[in-house]
Design brief:
mainly alpha; 156 residues; three-stranded antiparallel beta sheet
């Protein structure tokens, strides 16, 4: 039994092997590298880092300063205002409420910005089949820990 194999067939098989086992993995590595460069330079910006830091501080402030009970008691002669079951003047109550509402609005805007960027990174990582977890979520968790540690240092 004789096989006639020309040099062109051998060359074609060699090129297919090189393409499959060398070039394709190289292209995938370059694609992944470019993906992470885009994420690092265009999505995770200094503005995002600043928003994460601000949101962590605002969230801590929301959970400490504005977490108490706020109430108003009406009677026939007078209206009483309470913050954390402590009676305050109307001016102080209005100031507290205004600060709380403006902080909540700022937190909502900041969180929307953070979530949009985080969702974009999550989509890119899933689309390009990356096993990594979302780095924005890690940054958010680290920022929350840092704010908590700073608060504990000031208390001691």
């Amino acid at each position: 039994m004789e096989f006639d194999v020309s040099i062109w067939v051998l060359l074609k098989v060699a090129l297919i092997a090189v393409g499959t086992y060398v070039l394709l993995p190289l292209f995938l590595v370059i694609r992944d590298f470019l993906l992470w460069q885009i994420i690092d330079h265009f999505i995770i910006t200094s503005e995002l880092k600043h928003q994460i830091s601000l949101y962590s501080e605002w969230l801590f402030q929301w959970n400490t300063k504005f977490a108490g009970k706020v109430s108003i008691e009406h009677s026939e002669s007078k209206t009483k205002y309470f913050i954390n079951e402590k009676q305050v003047e109307q001016y102080d109550w209005e100031k507290f409420r205004t600060e709380r509402d403006s902080l909540q609005e700022a937190m909502n805007k900041s969180l929307l910005y953070i979530h949009r960027r985080s969702n974009l990174v999550t989509w890119l990582l899933k689309h390009y089949k990356q096993d990594s977890s979302n780095p924005i979520k890690k940054m958010y968790e680290e920022s929350n820990l840092r704010v908590k540690e700073q608060y504990e240092e000031t208390r001691s």
